[in-house]
Amino acid sequence: LQPKYRSSYRQPDYWIRHTDLLFQIVPDPDPEAPAGATVTYVTSTLTVERNADGGPSPGIPNLELDGEELTLMEITVNGQPLPWDGSAFLLTAESDLLVLGKTIEAASAGKGDFTLQTRVLIRPESNFELSGFYKSGSAYCSQCEAEGFRRITYYLDRPDVMARFKVRIEAEKAKLPLLLSNGNKMATGELDGGRHFAEWEDPFPKPSYLFAVVAGDLGSIVDSYKTMSGRDVRLEIFSEHENVDKLEHAMTSLKKSMRWDEDVYGLEYDLDVYNIVAVNDFNMGAMENKGLNVFNTAFVLAKPETATDTDYERIEGVIAHEYFHNWSGNRVTCQDWFQLTLKEGLTVFRDQQFSADMGSAAVKRIEDVRVLRARQFAEDSGPRAHAIRPESYMKMDNFYTSTVYEKGAEVIRMYHTLLGAAGFRKGMDLYFARHDGSAVTCDDFRAAMADANGKDFSQFERWYLQAGTPVVTAKGAYDAAQKRYSLTLSQHTAGTVGQPSKLPFHIPVRVGLLGKDGRELVPSTVLELKEASQTFEFENVEGGTPVPSLLRGFSAPVRLKVEQSDEDLAFLMAHDTDSFNRWEASQKLASQAILAATEALAGGGTPAPLAPTTVDAFRAVLKAGLDDTGVDRSLLAYALSLPDELTLLGEMDVMRPVALHEGREHVKKSLAAALKPEFMDVYQALDKDVPYLVTPQEIGRRRMKNVCLSYLCTEKDAGAVALAASAFQRATCMTDSIAALACLASLPGPEKDEALEIFYTNAKGDPLVLNKWFSIQALADLPDTIDRVHALTRHPDFSMKNPNRFRALIGAFANSNLARFHAEDGRGYVLVADMVLAVDKLNPQVAARLAGAFSLWRKFENTRRNMMKSQLDRLMAVGDGLSRDTFEIVSQSLL
Ligand code: B3K
Ligand code: ZN
């Protein structure tokens, strides 16, 4: 289990310039095989070329091709079959390589250029890892990023090897009428025995991770798009036939994305077709294969009865994300996998900008920061902390992390903040002009930003080198006589595993100053904090001590420490001109109250009553919700939503999840009690029976209404049950139905089980709706949640083979029901470790991700710390029986 290091990057000794593939899906020749079973033969013809200038090895070195779970049937060089006596090639079982040595020298007259053909047998039907070529439902599909192509054929499976691909697929026509691959369709035709074929050609050289192939019997919707230069692109989205009525939103989102990338970045689509295929079994959200995206159904299918507002928003975002990859990822790709954030951080930033433009920028920013704080801050504070450009990995799939993606996007956002929109665009233009068609590095991106703007980004490199979340401390002082306000900003980043000390980062801190009357005295300005500590002076500040509004829009991925009284926070909640910071003030006000209550409860005491300032501040938000003149109710809803438990846990020196849960419930109940009539008024005013529309106004209305409902259900009494049960019965869209069910599921009495049964029946087997049904129960705040989850693992609809279903139940429980996962008796830990072991045998990527639920064990109070550690030890003890993916996570967690 050798890790790979970023520092060991060398160019390959050989390039592959042309890759011709033949896929033959045929009946399984094994007489014992079940009826209808198939195997696939893949014949690959590669034009191999010696890397003349950059290849690290002298002479004619060995060619070592990656391969995993392949059965080699035939191999030829320049059309000549190679002998199988070990003299011409070598198959190394332990390292999964096909090695060609002396053969090359002879075949290429000492030049190193030749044609290699292999024919392998693969078994998509028993590929439960969902990497490589596999079956989902009745369709065959592929997932190659990061290193799945080697499970299809022997190859130089690394992103800097870019080839032109031609693909021919042959299959039984009746069962698999649809045959797709990347690029343009060149030919189709009939074959003997009811079989047919299709041939595809992708004119753009690409790395193997962007390859895709699909064969199935699917339905679709078709549309078209005229690009800014006037070319027509055929757009088609495929799904199982019964889901074709849920594709329209994805199509609309795709067309919006195409327009937006032209408008904002001048980037145009480059092929004549753009295909998207939705499959039910998928490890991640979606995949940006050139011209043929493959999506998890959860990120495509939507209709009001089956998808929530959040689903609609997420679909729009992910469709855009994969589309934007066509430039940031495909046209310009990564030199090696350590550079993953080059394409992912950049593309997440681009999809965030897009969603901001489609709806409300402030709402989008709040949603993104909530996720970053909950997930990425946690990752950064544990043993798996890594820089956005990691230094080593064992299994690349373990590095598709919140740090690489979401913090990576924050780093891109900081360029944007430091350069402004126009400067950032100049940098992007230069990046694409310099690197179109090549595989590059994060340093190349940074250089483009610097060179296009004449700006020094050398210190900025530390964001790529150092792990951990910086803590920025702010202290202000006002000199009334001089009318001068001085702001001292200091930064410190705690050591992380393997990186005990850190150098100061280059941090953009956007600030404004407000007068006591709410007027903006100093408008938003970006301070550049580069030293450990710096003081910034603001002159001519009139009207007494101002209230600073710091880190506006969350201008850097840091934790801000600043003394703010409840009064200042209430003031900012009401008056800050920066919408994000109005929300931020509400969160800080709530956090302070929750953490104080938690401390009291953990010490066996009773929490103090809520400060009247806090109650009044929340009352004002509720009152604003009654205003019908265009207020953004999503913003209000988020201001009313208390910070989530994972974020709050990260604020505690010693993590006490159950006390925290109780502290948070205490604050929520207190607010609900103090403002019951106000919550009820808003709830009733917004509880309208109107047609379902996915507009920011309507989403905001539902969001605010449902937040009120959740407050009104915190006191677990008969009134709450009646309210939630009625909301559930009256719901006419999934958003309202799931919001009501989520409340009901944590309340006592038989109503919840009745509602769950109705929900289950109404789902009529729809997999995405059933996922919600499982999640709601895993997230419930009930004394017997763990027993219910146990029982659900034996439910006929539960499956370890479907990642969505598995995560809906087990992932939700382990990552989002902290009080139950971390329950005193340790049963939550045992259950999750059991599940890691069970799923690891089928799907290591899914298992490894779940195992991450234990990684912060050192930060918990003693009892839990020991119990979590013993589950990690138990996983470690499996030894060779553990997948490399899970081994990497478990062993790192123990560091
Ligand atoms: N690039 C893919 C992720 C592939 C994950 C491989 N384990 C999706 C995306 O970020 O767009
Ligand atoms: Zn991506």
From TrEMBL:
Name of one Pfam family that matches: Peptidase_M1
Domain Peptidase M1 alanyl aminopeptidase Ig-like fold: 468-562
Cofactor requirement: Zn(2+)
GO molecular function: aminopeptidase activity; metallopeptidase activity; zinc ion binding
Coiled coil: none
UniProt xrefs under NCBIfam families: pepN_proteo
Domain Aminopeptidase N-like N-terminal: 127-210
Family: Belongs to the peptidase M1 family.
Residues covered by the Peptidase M1 alanyl aminopeptidase C-terminal domain: 566-894
Key words of the record: Aminopeptidase, Hydrolase, Metal-binding, Metalloprotease, Protease, Zinc
Example GO biological process: proteolysis
Protein name: Aminopeptidase n
Domain Peptidase M1 membrane alanine aminopeptidase: residue ranges: 250-463
Domain of life, per lineage: Eukaryota
InterPro entries reported in the protein's UniProt record: Aminopeptidase_N-like_N, Aminopeptidase_N-like_N_sf, PepN_Ig-like_sf, Peptidase_M1, Peptidase_M1_dom, Peptidase_M1_pepN, Peptidase_M1_pepN_C, Peptidase_M1_pepN_C_sf
